[in-house]
Design goal:
This protein has 727 residues and is of the alpha+beta class. It is built from 14 helices and 38 strands. Bound molecules: alpha-D-galactopyranose (GLA). Alpha-D-galactopyranose binds at residues 332, 362-363, 372, 407, 474, 476, 522, 524-525, 541, 544.
């Protein structure tokens, strides 16, 4: 519920358990008043602290700069006295960049608009507040948008900037939101990583000055996820305050957290201003992507569940969103580039015999690609490998009884490709410089409409040429050499964002033209695992690291924000190709169970005993996947923290079914049975576990017994079913 209290000049946005409050000073300046557990009253102006020095500019014009220096501006700008982190910079033709935003009007309405060309949350059971601010000198109008969805403790922010002046201006910074937090002992929680070890949870105490995370790679990146939470010191799963921000965008971003002279904390998030300058001509509008803010007054668990529910119900759009995905087998770790039609059909036949439902042909089927040094851009089938052609292969796979999927890397071009020989100007490059390669490839300049059009049409032609049910859309290098021979000099600063918009545009078309297609995004593993991509695809390849132990950490970080149903997780062969670790086949299966689940190995070559386990693993997947798709996730213990064992639990929304995954990473001599406290059960419900019956209350307060297992890397799945709740 959103309301405006005219008497107090207070805007109050309520969700089930939280309130987000803003207020006006001098009827002009929009200040941040409060974000936290739900408040009943709107008599909150005193929280702006305006009755003590310094006074507002109206009361004390001689101290306007001092006012700006400490007022908790809701959407701060720089240059007029607020010396903290800012959100907006507008460069005028005279070279000056100051903007003073004052309140003009507002509107509250049912529903929520989607953002044109950008991913955004959606749904009719929502309400929106738009607050219009304006700067008379520059003619810039800023609309702050706030939306909430019924039953969900999240506030979604975005910003529209309009140029109402006659001259163009250059936007050199347009962040999507800011949050001022009162003094306290806080830490940041973010998801840090690298290739093959994405999204490791990382905490840092907040000290004086600015800190933060960012990427300028043109993808959200392996290194930092566009997520940051300011959490009170010592926050656990069930205790502590959490102010979380997640950016619905897949390219350059910045989060800055600043503790100032008064111990106040300001956190801002948005498109990274580096390499960004957007020419906004008279009458034009720029829309900044959404930030999803979640507050939890009771620890991280609630934040996680809020993000999961929001993204499952109001972000992902795919027809596959709530459906069990086919169990796939991908040939990447099985064959790398060394495959042909016969090899794929051999894999498919054995896969079918063991209950697998789809074969995905990964990199290497097109152009003359035998390694990663050629053919990106040449999206036509390599018939010397795929003998008989793509349609023949797809038909044969369907005859075997499997669905068929295929890999693309649409945003790239190999210097050794027909496309590059024809169109060297289609790669991003700076005048006079040879563009730098990574993985032997260059990035296509998708700001050039004919390039995006050509690539889209090539992909669509392939998808129409054979029965293809699934696409893995990969993106394997960061953007460098940010120059376009298409855009004029004064728009070169738009390349990074336009490139992203072009990718979004291509994926949007793909979904419209092939509505039943199961699209899985990927970026050198999980380098673009963000809410932006989830708007287009219901799942994302989580990491090129398929080692079950490393996956415990990667998946814990990913599950902190993103629904389990979105997390691409496969069982691969051992020794693991990334870490060399050998883990039991059963553990690899149990760990992949809390993601999309599939196989990434040569099923014709693994041991007979591993192969024999596959049908049983698939049965488990079918049994527990409905919980994975829609249940509540609880983190019980973290291997990243205790270095010993991992444990998480999923409970159906009606609390009748649950399963617990326990992985003992390291065996300990002379260890004792553990009792792990479960969560989310009906306290007075009786739950059956194997032959035994336990009271929910007991399992949550005293714990579930977990036996000592002999050996490293052992896992078990514990199933719970509510049998009675008569107490
Ligand atoms: C990336 C992906 C892998 C695989 C290769 C193919 O690394 O993450 O899964 O598709 O590319 O080149």
């Amino acid at each position: 519920m959103i309301l405006f209290d005219e008497k107090n000049s207070i805007f109050k946005i309520d969700t089930v358990n939280t309130s987000y409050v803003m207020g006006l000073a001098d009827e002009m300046y929009l200040g941040h008043v409060y974000y936290g557990d739900k408040l009943q009253s709107t008599d909150l102006t005193y929280l702006l602290g305006l009755e003590v020095n310094p006074f507002t500019p109206e009361q004390k014009p001689g101290e306007k700069v001092s006012f700006m220096d400490c007022f908790p501006m809701e959407y701060p700008t720089k240059g007029l006295g607020d010396f903290r982190e800012s959100c907006l910079s507008v460069k005028r033709m005279n070279g000056q960049e100051q903007t003073e935003l004052v309140y003009k009007s507002h509107v509250i309405y049912k529903g929520k608009q989607t953002l044109e060309g950008l991913p955004s949350t959606w749904g009719e059971d929502s309400e929106t507040l738009e607050i219009m601010l304006a700067d008379e000198i520059t003619g810039i109008q800023v609309t702050l948008l706030y939306s909430v969805f019924d039953g969900i403790d999240a506030v979604i922010k975005s910003v529209r900037v309009k140029n109402t002046a006659a001259e163009p201006v250059f936007l050199t910074k347009v962040l999507s939101g800011s949050l001022d937090i009162r003094p306290g002992s806080y830490e940041t929680l973010s998801l840090h990583g690298s290739w093959a070890r994405e999204r490791h949870m990382s905490r840092t105490p907040i000290g004086y000055g600015s800190m933060g995370i960012e990427t300028c790679r043109g993808i959200s990146g392996h290194q930092e996820n566009p997520f940051l939470a300011v959490v009170s010191e010592g926050t656990t799963q069930n205790t502590g305050e959490v102010y979380a921000m997640n950016f619905v965008y897949s390219s350059n971003f910045m989060v800055k957290v600043q503790k100032n002279q008064f111990d106040h904390i300001r956190a801002v998030m948005g498109i990274h201003p580096e390499n960004f300058s957007w020419k906004l001509s008279a009458g034009e509008v720029f829309t900044a992507p959404e930030v999803v803010m979640v507050y939890s007054g009771s620890g991280l668990g609630r934040m996680t569940q809020t993000y999961h529910d929001l993204y499952r119900n109001h972000l992902i759009r795919s027809a596959w969103k709530d459906k069990m995905r086919p169990v796939l087998i991908n040939n990447w770790e099985a064959t790398y580039f060394n495959f042909d039609t016969n090899k794929l059909l051999d894999i498919a036949r054995s896969a079918k015999a063991h209950g697998i439902e789809m074969l995905v042909m990964d990199d290497g089927w097109f152009g003359h690609r035998e390694s990663d040094n050629s053919s990106l851009g040449d999206w036509f089938v390599n018939e010397s490998k795929i003998q008989g052609g793509l349609k023949y292969l797809a038909d044969e796979i369907h005859n075997i009884g499997l669905k068929f999927g295929i890999w693309f890397e649409p945003e790239m071009i190999s210097p050794d490709s027909e496309l590059y020989r024809l169109h060297p100007e289609w790669a991003l490059r700076c005048e006079g410089r040879e563009p730098g390669q990574a993985r032997n490839q260059l990035v296509l300049d998708l700001t050039r409409p004919e390039t995006a059009e050509y690539i889209y049409n090539s992909i669509a032609a392939i998808l129409k040429s054979a029965a293809i049910e699934y696409v893995k859309w990969d993106m394997n290098r960061p953007l460098s050499d940010i120059g376009s021979s298409y855009l004029p000099a004064d728009q070169q600063g738009e390349i990074m964002h336009r490139q992203m918009l072009a990718v979004y545009g291509m994926q949007e078309r793909l979904l419209k033209d092939f509505p039943e297609l199961l699209l899985e995004n990927c970026s050198g593993g999980g380098a673009r695992f963000d809410p932006g991509m989830l708007y287009y695809s219901p799942q994302f390849w989580c990491s090129d690291d398929t080692d079950a132990v490393e996956r415990l950490i990667i998946q814990e970080g990913t599950q902190l924000i993103y629904p389990l149903s979105t997390i691409g997780a496969h069982v691969s062969d051992c020794p693991n190709h990334t870490t060399g670790r050998v883990t039991p086949f059963s553990t690899r299966g149990d760990v992949a169970l809390s993601g999309t689940f599939g196989y990434e190995l040569d099923i014709t070559k693994i041991s007979q005993s591993d192969r024999d386990e596959i049908p049983g693993q698939i049965d488990k997947f079918k049994k527990f996947n409905p919980l994975v798709l829609s249940g509540d996730y609880f983190r019980i213990a973290s291997y990243q923290e205790n270095h010993d064992y991992d444990c998480y639990q999923i409970v159906s929304k009606d609390k009748k079914k649950s399963f617990v995954t326990y992985v003992q990473v390291h065996a300990k001599p002379n260890a004792k049975k553990k009792y792990l406290r479960l969560q989310g059960l009906v306290p007075d419900g009786l739950y059956q576990i194997g032959e035994d019956i336990y009271l929910g209350d007991t399992l949550m307060k005293a714990g579930i017994p977990v036996p000592v297992i002999f050996g490293d890397y052992r896992s078990m799945i514990i199933e719970l079913n509510l049998v009675d709740s008569r107490f």
